[in-house]
Structure formats: structure tokens, C-alpha cells
Design goal:
single chain; about 450 residues; alpha+beta; Jelly Rolls; iron; heme binding; metal-binding; metal ion binding
């Protein structure tokens, strides 16, 4: 999303947080002195400064003691209400809670910040601050290279260029290209992908970037181009698509790649805006056990079942709500490794439930929507839902067009489906891998065995 809009929306969100509470939560930090240099600076540097520094969309810079002190009461309230760090909107009271990538502060870190603010914000010995981090711009680094220690991507796909006019409406650039024409290296045989990451190609491209998706298109037996599997998806807060350790996607030399890029004018012409998709491969000759479908969309609403165009039933009245629900029956066994919601500015919450073939009903997760940040919530291995074929998936989305929704630009409007943020969408993405019957039964049995072992170990340690 462009930075001007981000900055305005973040200010609105932070102001809402300030007025949402007026009293501090109870604290249990001990009486020892808490100082900025010894206790607070490491937390801020690790969790805040990636965004809150010069040259970013964040509304304030938090790189020095003076800067942090100036916003200390707001920081305290934001972490106590878990508005910051952003990006984690899983309802903590419902559904699965075991994830690999939860960026939330610990209770102890939150208490530490609150104690520091309440006790007068002592600086401590500022000569003992942690060494400053040399931050890189979004187009200068690969997150997977840093986080996974994999080294740089094995291949880089660069989109065809597009010039974004200085002043216009939203721009969609959706070209098709032969894979070999957009790769930075030769591809002479089929290779299996284990992860991809999307970034802007340069700083100017980053300013106009809203979101981007890519998919592979593969010729069928008759030589006709078909719709291949999705390859990558990126938006504010989401750069990576990382597949399970035993799964991947195949890319072939004669594949085509489809780009779907949403770009937004920023008041000056941006020539040759592009994205890059870094591709990490399995070792040559190695084939993963499963082909993953990865992110699979389940729309809320009944348009699909009625044979109507997408979101025909999405119509939100002024100052009102709409709840949409879609039902889907799995024709294959599925292992789910992630969940991600998608709505726009009128989003309220989304929930994914399942009804198993034996009649049991379970809430997998509820996502309290925030359009400022898009997160793929990645399940811990033992928490990945295992869904037998015949399971019914229920994708529910509540849309909020009232003045109480702080993201709502105009509650007086009727709202319909639109790809722009002023319109609405409502679908939930499950990261899915289809599992054959016999292997699925073995997977369920192994899961039960490992959970029993874990419970016994936990009981022994009590």
C-alpha cells in the first residue's frame, strides 16, 4: 500500500488505541530499576525499529531514547492492548493458538515497558545501548535469506516493467511471460520449489506497491495454456510463501508466469515499476514427498454455489453490517499449514470452522481483521489441522460499514465487491497439501502418538 495512505491509517489506528483505554493494566514486574538502556532499547530495536525509522511509512521514529520517551505513554498502551507490534490478529480466546511466526511481545516484555513508563522512564547508562542495526530498504534484502540462513535465492523472477502515472486511479498490471524470459538464470529441467519471496525491484517500485500475486501456467496435453497453481502472494506485512518441509511446487522450463500487480499513483510518475520474486529450490534431483497447493481461497458467501459471478451477494448497507458464509466439502484429505484472511476497509472479523465426517464441529481460528497488515499465520507442526475428505469447511466473514469501524472511510456509502480497497472482498486462505488415504491415516496416528508423548512429558515436569 502506498505510504501516504499507510501513514494516515496508522495515525487513525493509534489515536483509536489512545482513546480505547485510560488506565494501565496491573503490573507484576519486581522493584528493580528498569532503564531504557538495559531493558527497553533491546525490545524496541528488535520489535519496532524495522518500521519506526527514517524513510518508512510509520508515523514516528523510535531510534533514540529521546524519541522513545516522547511517545512512551502511547507505546505502553499500544503494547498492552497488543496493537503493536502489528500483524497478529488471531483471536486469542478461540481456536488453535500454536503458531511458528507470532511476533507478539511476551507478557514479561509488556510488563517491562509498562513498569519503565510508570516509574519515570529512566535512561540508564546510554553508553551501554545495543549496537545500532544497519537496516536495509525493502528492495535490498531477502527475508528468507536472513531468517532461514539459506543464502540468496537460487533464481530471481523479475516482472515486466510498468509505468505508473503521477495521478490516476488504482493501476493493475497483469502480463503473462515465459518463465525463461523473466528468470535471471537458465532453467533446463523441472525443479522443485520450497519457498518464494516477493519484494519491490527498487525504492520507487516500493512506493507504488499495493500487492502482487503470481501464478504458473502450464500447457496441457493439447498444447493449450492452462491455469497453473499460485506461486507467490505479497502485500503489506507479507513477503514470503514457505512450503512445508516435505512439500513443494514444480516449475518447468516451458511454463508461463502470470503477474497480477496492484499499483497506486503517488503524485509523481514512476517509470518501470517492477517486482522481484526470489525462488529457493530443493537440491537438484530431490523431489519432495507431496505437491502442495499452498494458499487455497475459500470465499464467504453463496455466489459460487448459485453459479453467480464472484461476490454477487456482497452488499453492505450504510451504517450497517453484513455477514457472509461459504460452505465447502473437501473431496480429498488435507493437511493445513497456514491460515490468512482477506478483506478490505470494512472488514470486521473472519472465522474458519469445520464439520468433520463424524459430525464433530470445531472452530479452527477467528481473525480480528485489520487492513493495515497482512499476515500468513503458520501453524506449529503438531497444530496443523488434519482434515479428512468429506469435511465441511465454513468460511464466515463479518463486514462492518458503521462509524465504529476506525478503518471505514465513509459509512454513508453502500459497499459492493471491488478489487480496490474502497470496495470489499471476503475470503480466507488455507495453506493446504492433499494427502492420499493411507498416508493420511498414518499421519493422524503419528500425530496422536506425538501428542500423547508430549502430554506425558509435560505431566512429568509438573
Amino acid at each position: 500500500m502506498n505510504r501516504m495512505k499507510d501513514r494516515q491509517n496508522i495515525r487513525v489506528a493509534l489515536v483509536a488505541v489512545v482513546f480505547a483505554a485510560t488506565a494501565a493494566l496491573p503490573l507484576s514486574v519486581g522493584a528493580q530499576e528498569v532503564t531504557y538502556a538495559a531493558n527497553i532499547a533491546p525490545i524496541v530495536q528488535e520489535n519496532c525499529v524495522r518500521c519506526h525509522r527514517q524513510g518508512t511509512a510509520a508515523p514516528m521514529v523510535l531510534e533514540t531514547y529521546e524519541q522513545v520517551r516522547a511517545f512512551a505513554p502511547l507505546i505502553k498502551l499500544s503494547v498492552q492492548t497488543r496493537t503493536m507490534p502489528p500483524g497478529w490478529y488471531i483471536d486469542r480466546t478461540l481456536g488453535i493458538q500454536d503458531f511458528k511466526n507470532n511476533p507478539s511481545l511476551s507478557d514479561q516484555e509488556i510488563e517491562m515497558i509498562a513498569s519503565w513508563v510508570d516509574s519515570g522512564m529512566a535512561p540508564g547508562d546510554l553508553s551501554q545501548l545495543p549496537a545500532p542495526v544497519q537496516w536495509q530498504a525493502d528492495h535490498e534484502y531477502w527475508q528468507l535469506e536472513q531468517d532461514q540462513s539459506w543464502g540468496p535465492p537460487d533464481m530471481i523472477i523479475t516482472s515486466p516493467p510498468f509505468t505508473v502515472p503521477a495521478n490516476s486511479g488504482d493501476q493493475w498490471w497483469e502480463p503473462d511471460a515465459a518463465v525463461l524470459d523473466v528468470l535471471d538464470t537458465k532453467l533446463t529441467e523441472g525443479r522443485w520449489i520450497r519457498a518464494v519471496e516477493t519484494r519491490p525491484a527498487d525504492s520507487e517500485s516500493g512506493y507504488v506497491f499495493h500487492h502482487a500475486n503470481t501464478s504458473l501456467r502450464r500447457a496441457d496435453d493439447d498444447g493449450q495454456s492452462g491455469n497453473g497453481a499460485g506461486l507467490s502472494s505479497a502485500a503489506v506485512g507479507k513477503r514470503t510463501d514457505m512450503y512445508p518441509e516435505d512439500a513443494g511446487k514444480l516449475i518447468l522450463p516451458d511454463d508461463e508466469i502470470h503477474f497480477s500487480m496492484h499499483l497506486f499513483p503517488i503524485g509523481r510518475e514512476v517509470v518501470d515499476a517492477q517486482i522481484q520474486v526470489g525462488v529457493w529450490l530443493y537440491p537438484q534431483g530431490e523431489e519432495p514427498k507431496y505437491t502442495t497447493n499452498d494458499e487455497t481461497s475459500f470465499n464467504s458467501g453463496e455466489s459460487r454455489d448459485l453459479g453467480l459471478p464472484r461476490y454477487t451477494d456482497l452488499l453492505i448497507p450504510p451504517h450497517g453490517y453484513q455477514m457472509l458464509r461459504g460452505n465447502f466439502v473437501l473431496e480429498q484429505n488435507a493437511r493445513v499449514h497456514s491460515i490468512r484472511g482477506h478483506m478490505h476497509l470494512r472488514g470486521g472479523y473472519q472465522m474458519m470452522e469445520v464439520i468433520y465426517p463424524d459430525g464433530r464441529r470445531e472452530v479452527i481460528n477467528k481473525i480480528d481483521w485489520n487492513h493495515l497488515w497482512h499476515t500468513t499465520h503458520i501453524y506449529e507442526d503438531l497444530a496443523r489441522p488434519l482434515l479428512p475428505k468429506g469435511t465441511v469447511l465454513i468460511a464466515t466473514s463479518l463486514l462492518d460499514n458503521t462509524a465504529d469501524n476506525p478503518s471505514n472511510p465513509d459509512p454513508d456509502q453502500w459497499v459492493v465487491y471491488n478489487r480496490r480497497s474502497a470496495g470489499e472482498m471476503a475470503h480466507i486462505r488455507f495453506g493446504m497439501t492433499w494427502i492420499p488415504d493411507e498416508e493420511f491415516e498414518q499421519m493422524v496416528a503419528e500425530r496422536e502418538r506425538r501428542l500423547k508423548e508430549r502430554d506425558l512429558l509435560d505431566a512429568a515436569e509438573e
